[in-house]
């Protein structure tokens, strides 16, 4: 799915597809680096976002992970999220945008290029738990794009 489409954005299309066929796995392939668009796609049900200038291996890997119901972030997006979360850390520990220690650790590993499976092995947690952390991160940071400009 591309994010920028004629007549309808990719997030809206993703939402409609997921509503009609909930088991559909959607991988976003985009040239846009607009965080709000990307987070909107995740909130609409996308499993991954791959940038068009990345290697084909990244796309095939994202598709494989989506088939296995794994959420995946590109290392560049994870690095940007880390920068934003550090900026927002000034809001205090009770802020809804504050990432937990586990979420931060997972983002750091993703930004180094580790897959969800390798992260689960490294942290000795299940892939499902890695996916839950990623979903929590995406949910928290969706608020950043809409309410704060870090």
Structure report:
The chain is mostly helical and 150 residues long. The chain has 2 domains: 1-72, Rossmann fold, CATH 3.40.50.2300; 74-150, Rossmann fold. It contains 7 helices and 2 strands, in the order H-E-H-E-H-H-H-H-H. It has a two-stranded parallel sheet. Helix 2 (35-44) links the parallel strand 1 and strand 2 (48-51). Helix 1 (10-20) runs parallel beside helix 2 (35-44).
Index terms:
globular, two-stranded parallel ribbon, Rossmann fold, mainly alpha, 150 residues, disordered C terminus
Write the layout of secondary structure elements.
Elements: H1 10-20, E1 27-30, H2 35-44, E2 48-51, H3 56-67, H4 75-88, H5 101-111, H6 116-123, H7 127-147
